[in-house]
């Protein structure tokens, strides 16, 4: 009769909803089975409730209490201890009880107690199958019926389901297919019996209400399948229980198991499946399919017996750690299955070629890798980092892959346009790039995009930037003021410009982690992964670079192909020129062309006016323009294929770059200064290089030595030509990067504080640029201090110079010192700016010079 | 300082000290004084003028477990003291960037300091104090100062050492002086044994002063070895080598430039030491500056010092005249220590160098003989020879340490 009672309980429990921890749940299940009265426990909200009655007698009492809705805690009349105290003990007790019960004739209990030990399960199942079949069956029926009633409860039951099953499954997986096949037949009865128990478990589990709700899945199909006695299904069911399924259960997937179930039922590969290949969720699915296949094929792969199977091929890109880990537990059959799919085309093809695991890749057999080998393999696998949500959302493996493909395609386009290389070679390079280092994928993407957005000169290609590019040219003109640099620049040929950029990029790349292998010049392609294809890549790149140079040289400055722009880009361009939006693509193009022409003319004019040799400007234009044209198609293709993320990235970078460029524009002479010394170096192989935004920032940032040099220069000028105010140059050259600005802002705010003295108030009027050069001003102060003439030599002893005071450890009165600096000191060295007391104080403290305010000087 | 007309000379001695109750070791106090020998009895109630915070009988007596000495100005010492007392407010202890709204530490008494709600660090442990001291000594502002930490208590030094090992940038050893009961004391010249052994007046400069005064008085043909220009001591800042047998005299700027030439940092303005171009001995810049400032700015005091020294020497001379025969060996012995001692400014006076000049010998006719005992005797004498009264700082607004 207990069984009957159980059934009732179970049915009720699901409806109430489940949140008892599995362990508790199992316990409760046992109890419930043992004690029919427990059935009412589900109504109780607290998970502990079911345990309250340690003894049957208690149980009898309990229900009544619960019905009264007065919860627990009245010591049971028959039990001595208060229920609360017993709660802790309960598990043990229940277990003991269960044990006792198991000793009793009812075998069901036994199974339930040890659902996770496969051996016991089997044996028990066999035993019970024989002895208790009759008994178990009715129960099962009833349960199923109940379950259906409670069908909504899916979550808990589902989660429980796999767990219990997975227990079996893990075991089975380890035992390998052979075992499966062997056991499959005898299992049939056991399954039916087990099912009953399993059902019990499930039902009971549903009670955990207080815990995190398990994923919503419908238990129904599983149950029915379980009930179904067909060997295939049972096997499939068992196969499903692989370790992967556990993980999938942990995985909170929106797609849910329904799709899986469907696909599993369908058996055939679908697009969907392909997409999810990398997804951990899909592993179990493949398992299932593979299992089926193995059945059909006759266990060819499973012959390996005890060996846990793991196919090297499966190493293709597991995008998540979970997938990686689960991969070890998936059967090799997956690959065979997959090989037929399209997925393999773009994953496996490229992979084995380059990867070290290549040899193993073709091996259909499942091989247990040694730990070392496994680690190695893991190292070579691609990893996509991200939160689950990220990985799951838009960045499904496929999209990622497509992004990469698009990038590669665009790159190839760039090459191909020059007609340099055969497509096959390009493909190879692309593949090698993709495989070179999986870790670098993301950075690689970013860099590639940023590269795509820039032309050979490192300036932005995007529409918005066109005017900026034009604007930079005057800045080049400006640069001419530095005579030596100009001359050196005049010699530059187009090729050299390219080289410059490459050099820059090289240096920048040095900063990047070694993982950014793709597209690296041959010199850097020493890494083992790229080594295989390194030489072809080199060739391609070299030729590409050469041809590009050639084209660049031959091509006159040309207008960007506006016809190739998308409408949005066009409108942006128009806006960039300061026009209102124009309707009609053609009009826009016309307008833009006119604008460009006028601008172009203007630029050259300015160049002429500024007496800058035209060669330079032309060279620049030449380099800029062709790259524009070449990259435009890229942009287009991007537009088509690029997924959201990439688009946003590119746009953001471009806008970023635009703003930066604007800020930099003034300082661009600096860049050229920096780059000009590099001219002499041999040309690197490829023009495609990553110009990091940060690098550009760095360029703008002056190193102290640079600043110093600059000032020495200025100083010398000042001294020679009297009091030539070099301030103009300085302000223009002053770095204007945001960070710097921020710092200066803070500095200014600080410097304004101690405006107590008259001298300080002067300083307040100083603009921020004044303070941006805190660094140089401190140098200037030092210089001024040293330059203080000892004209007053006769009174030197009574009126020491500031330098002498400092040397003698005199506390420097900041107000006096500052006023001296402003009135006299800085003038001595041709410095027009003035300093505030705060700046002076910083200077003193930085030098370890004791300084104080006037009011404290009397100490 | 020229605003005030009378710049002060570099004080003979100024230190910040960490006071600890011998009764209750957790009670600590940070102060600064030019004269710890006088200050400690004040804290202990033996003399008037102790800080209020140290007036509790329960906690007395106090001991100075360490002193940070070598301050070149009272202002500097007070700044250091304030920073040590208020590590949470001192800009010198803050990382860059966090210093924005901290009131200038340089303005020690700035009333605006109250604007910021003070983090109540009521009771701070010895370790915390030592930690702050450590980082202060490494701070940009103070690192270049010629400061030295003198430990008088072994247990305190142990704590310090532990901390020093934990810090990535340990303090150089030459900034540490083990004294008192600390084991492993190194340079015997620097060890004084206790607070009372400290030389807190210009006594240690007597000989140096004497020599330089003498040298510069007769400076017709004395040339700066660096610029080869005749020095004019009355109008120029002339630095005299502290070594007794060296006639090196240089312009201040010339010498500093020469000393800084060897330094890597072109930005450096103040040298710490250098090799005297005249005698090739390493000389301490702070010591020379101390002498220079004293000589140039406090002529009256210098005269007083020299007169006293003269008188004293005469007396001693009389006392030891009976044993004139010893003079020879003693004089020889005194030459070597003078060279050592002058390097580290702790070793006062061995003015009687026969090698100096013949006429000098006659002019100053006093000395001829100095005994070993005399030095010790002098250094332990009460320090009130030169009365430059500088008040101690009382840390009265500070939180009470118990």
Provide an overview of this structure:
The complex is a heterodimer of chains A (859) and B (402). Chain A has 859 residues and is mostly helical. Chain A folds into 4 domains: 1-239, no CATH class; 242-393, no CATH class; 454-691, no CATH class; 704-856, no CATH class. Chain A has a two-stranded parallel ribbon. In chain A, helix 24 packs across helix 32 (668-675). The longest helix of chain A has 52 residues, at 154-205. Chain A is elongated. In chain A, 50% of the residues are buried. Chain B has 402 residues and is α+β, with helices and mostly antiparallel strands. Chain B has 2 domains: 2-201, no CATH class; 203-379, Zinc/RING finger domain, C3HC4 (zinc finger) (Herpes Virus-1, 2-Layer Sandwich). Chain B has 12 helices and 9 strands. In chain B, strand 6 and strand 7 (249-251) form a beta hairpin. In chain B, helix 2 (74-85) packs across helix 3 and helix 3 (126-138) packs across helix 5. Chain B is globular and about 65 Å long. The A-B interface holds A 746, 749-750, 754, 779, 782, 785, 790, 793-797, 799-801, 803-811, 813-814, 816, 841, 845-859 and B 1-4, 7, 10, 72-76, 78-79, 91-92, 97, 99-100, 104, 106-110, 140-145, 234-237, 252-253, 256, 267-270, 286, 289, 292-293, 296.
> What percent of residues of chain B are in strands?
5-15%
Can you tell me the overall shape of chain B? globular
Largest sheet of chain B, in brief, is: 5 strands, mixed
Rough outline of chain A: elongated
Report the helical percentage of chain B: 25-40%
Distance between the termini of chain B: 39 Å
Global structural class of chain A = mainly alpha
Residue share in helices of chain A?
Answer: 55-70%
Q: What is the count of distinct domains of chain A?
A: 4
- Strand order across the biggest sheet of chain A? 1-2
Low-confidence region ranges of chain A? 1-198, 221-239, 254-270, 276-309, 333-361, 419-445, 463-556, 602-703, 714-771
- What's the gyration radius of chain B in Å? 22 Å
Strand content of chain A: under 5%
Largest sheet of chain A: 2 strands, parallel
Tell me the number of helical segments of chain B per DSSP (H or I, 4 or more residues long): 12
Number of helices of chain A: 42
């Amino acid at each position: 009769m207990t069984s009957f009672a159980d059934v009732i309980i179970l049915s009720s429990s699901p409806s109430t909803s489940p949140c008892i921890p599995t362990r508790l749940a199992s316990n409760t299940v046992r109890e419930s089975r043992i004690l029919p009265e427990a059935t009412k426990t589900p109504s109780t909200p607290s998970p502990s409730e079911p345990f309250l009655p340690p003894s049957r007698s208690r149980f009898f009492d309990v229900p009544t209490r619960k019905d009264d809705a007065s919860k627990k805690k009245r010591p049971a009349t028959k039990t001595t201890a208060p229920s609360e105290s017993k709660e802790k003990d309960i598990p043990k007790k229940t277990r003991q009880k269960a044990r006792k019960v198991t000793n009793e004739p009812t075998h069901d209990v036994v199974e339930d107690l040890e659902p996770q030990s496969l051996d016991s399960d089997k044996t028990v199942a066999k035993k019970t199958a024989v002895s208790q079949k009759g008994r178990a069956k009715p129960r099962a029926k009833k349960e199923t019926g109940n379950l259906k009633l409670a069908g909504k409860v899916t979550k808990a039951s589902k989660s429980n389901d796999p767990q219990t099953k997975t227990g079996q499954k893990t075991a089975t997986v380890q035992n390998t297919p052979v075992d499966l096949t062997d056991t499959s037949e005898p299992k049939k009865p056991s399954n039916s019996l087990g099912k009953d128990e399993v059902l019990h478990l499930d039902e009971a589990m549903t009670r955990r209400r207080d815990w995190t709700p398990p994923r919503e899945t419908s238990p129904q199909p599983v149950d029915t399948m379980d009930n179904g006695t067909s060997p295939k299904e049972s096997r499939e069911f068992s196969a499903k229980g692989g370790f992967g399924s556990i993980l999938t259960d942990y995985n909170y997937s929106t797609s849910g198991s329904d799709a899986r179930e469907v696909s599993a039922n369908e058996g055939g590969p679908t697009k969907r499946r392909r997409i999810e290949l990398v997804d951990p969720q899909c592993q179990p699915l493949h398992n299932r399919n593979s299992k089926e296949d193995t059945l059909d094929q006759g266990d060819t792969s499973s012959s390996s017996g005890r060996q846990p199977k793991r196919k090297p091929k499966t190493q293709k890109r597991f995008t998540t750690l979970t997938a990686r880990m689960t991969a070890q537990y998936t059967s090799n059959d997956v690959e065979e299955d997959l090989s037929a799919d399209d997925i393999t085309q773009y994953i496996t093809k490229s992979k084995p070629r380059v990867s070290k695991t290549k040899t193993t890749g073709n091996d259909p057999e499942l091989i247990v890798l040694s730990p070392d080998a496994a680690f190695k393999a893991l190292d070579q696998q691609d990893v996509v980092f991200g939160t689950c949500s990220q990985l799951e959302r838009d960045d499904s493996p496929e999209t990622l892959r497509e992004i990469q493909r698009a990038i590669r395609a665009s790159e190839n386009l760039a090459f191909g346009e020059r007609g340099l290389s055969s497509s096959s070679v390009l493909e190879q390079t692309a593949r090698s790039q993709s495989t070179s280092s999986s870790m670098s994928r993301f950075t690689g993407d970013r860099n590639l995009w940023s590269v795509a957005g820039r032309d050979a000169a490192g300036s932005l290609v995007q529409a918005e930037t066109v005017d900026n590019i034009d604007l930079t040219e005057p800045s080049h003109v400006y640069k001419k003021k530095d005579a030596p640099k100009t001359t050196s620049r005049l010699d530059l040929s187009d090729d050299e410009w390219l080289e410059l950029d490459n050099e820059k990029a090289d240096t920048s790349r040095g900063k990047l982690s070694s993982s950014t292998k793709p597209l690296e010049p041959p010199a850097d392609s020493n890494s083992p992964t790229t080594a295989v294809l390194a030489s072809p890549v080199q060739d391609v790149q070299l030729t590409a670079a050469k041809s590009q140079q050639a084209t660049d040289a031959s091509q006159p400055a040309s207008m960007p192909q506006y016809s190739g722009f998308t409408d949005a880009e066009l409108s942006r361009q128009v806006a960039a020129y300061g026009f209102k939006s124009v309707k009609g693509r053609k009009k826009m193009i016309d307008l833009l062309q006119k604008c460009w022409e006028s601008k172009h003319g203007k630029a050259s004019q300015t160049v002429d006016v500024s007496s800058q040799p035209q060669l330079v400007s032309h060279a620049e234009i030449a380099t800029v323009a062709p790259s524009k044209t070449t990259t435009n198609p890229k942009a287009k293709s991007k537009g088509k294929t690029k997924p959201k993320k990439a688009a946003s990235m590119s746009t953001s970078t471009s806008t970023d770059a635009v703003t930066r460029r604007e800020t930099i524009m003034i300082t661009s002479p600096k860049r050229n200064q920096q780059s000009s010394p590099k001219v002499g170096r041999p040309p690197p192989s490829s023009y495609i290089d990553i110009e990091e935004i940060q690098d550009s920032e760095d360029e703008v940032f002056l190193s102290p030595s640079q600043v110093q040099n600059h000032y020495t220069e200025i100083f010398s000028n000042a001294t020679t030509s009297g009091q030539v105010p070099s301030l103009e140059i300085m302000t223009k050259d002053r770095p204007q990067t945001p960070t710097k600005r921020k710092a200066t802002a803070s500095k200014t705010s600080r410097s304004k504080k101690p405006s107590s003295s008259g001298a300080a108030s002067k300083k307040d009027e100083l603009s921020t640029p004044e303070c941006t050069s805190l660094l140089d001003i401190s140098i200037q102060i030092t210089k001024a201090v040293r330059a203080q003439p000892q004209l007053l030599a006769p009174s030197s002893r009574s009126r020491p110079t500031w330098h002498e005071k400092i040397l003698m450890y005199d506390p420097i009165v900041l107000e006096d010192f500052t006023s001296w600096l402003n009135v006299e000191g800085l003038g001595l060295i041709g410095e027009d700016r003035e300093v505030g007391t705060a700046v002076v104080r910083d200077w003193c403290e930085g030098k370890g010079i004791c300084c104080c305010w006037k009011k404290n000087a009397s100490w | 300082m020229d605003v005030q007309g009378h710049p002060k000379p570099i004080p003979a001695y100024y230190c910040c000290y960490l006071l600890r109750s011998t009764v209750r070791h957790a009670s600590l106090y940070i102060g600064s004084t030019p004269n710890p020998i006088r200050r400690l009895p004040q804290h202990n109630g033996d003399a008037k003028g102790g800080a209020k915070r140290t007036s509790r009988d329960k906690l007395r007596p106090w001991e100075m477990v360490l002193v940070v000495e070598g301050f070149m100005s009272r202002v500097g010492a007070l700044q250091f003291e304030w920073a040590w007392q208020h590590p949470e407010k001192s800009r010198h202890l803050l990382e860059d960037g966090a210093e924005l709204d901290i009131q200038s530490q340089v303005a020690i008494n700035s009333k605006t300091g109250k604007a910021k709600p003070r983090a109540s660090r009521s009771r701070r442990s010895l370790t915390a104090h030592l930690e702050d001291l450590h980082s202060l000594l490494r701070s940009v502002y103070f690192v270049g100062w010629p400061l030295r930490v003198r430990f008088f208590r072994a247990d305190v030094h142990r704590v310090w050492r532990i901390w020093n090992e934990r810090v990535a940038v340990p303090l150089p050893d030459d900034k540490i002086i083990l004294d008192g009961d600390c084991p492993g004391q190194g340079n015997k010249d620097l060890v004084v044994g206790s607070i009372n052994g400290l030389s807190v007046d210009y006594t240690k400069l007597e000989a140096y002063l004497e020599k330089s005064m003498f040298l510069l008085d007769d400076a017709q043909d004395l040339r700066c070895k660096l610029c080869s220009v005749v020095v004019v001591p009355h109008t120029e800042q002339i630095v005299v080598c502290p070594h007794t047998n060296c006639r090196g005299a240089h312009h201040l700027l010339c010498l500093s430039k020469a000393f800084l030439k060897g330094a890597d940092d072109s930005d450096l303005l103040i040298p710490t030491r250098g090799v005297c171009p005249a005698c090739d001995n390493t000389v301490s810049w702070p010591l020379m500056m101390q002498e220079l400032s004293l000589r140039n700015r406090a002529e009256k005091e210098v005269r007083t010092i020299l007169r006293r020294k003269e008188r004293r020497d005469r007396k001693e001379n009389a006392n030891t005249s009976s044993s004139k025969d010893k003079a020879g060996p003693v004089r020889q012995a005194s030459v070597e220590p003078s060279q050592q001692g002058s390097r580290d400014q702790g070793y006062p006076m061995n003015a009687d160098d026969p090698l100096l000049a013949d006429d000098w010998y006659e002019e100053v006719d006093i000395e001829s003989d100095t005994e070993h005992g005399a030095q010790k005797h002098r250094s332990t004498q009460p320090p009130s020879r030169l009365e430059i009264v500088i008040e101690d700082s009382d840390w009265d607004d500070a939180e009470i340490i118990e």
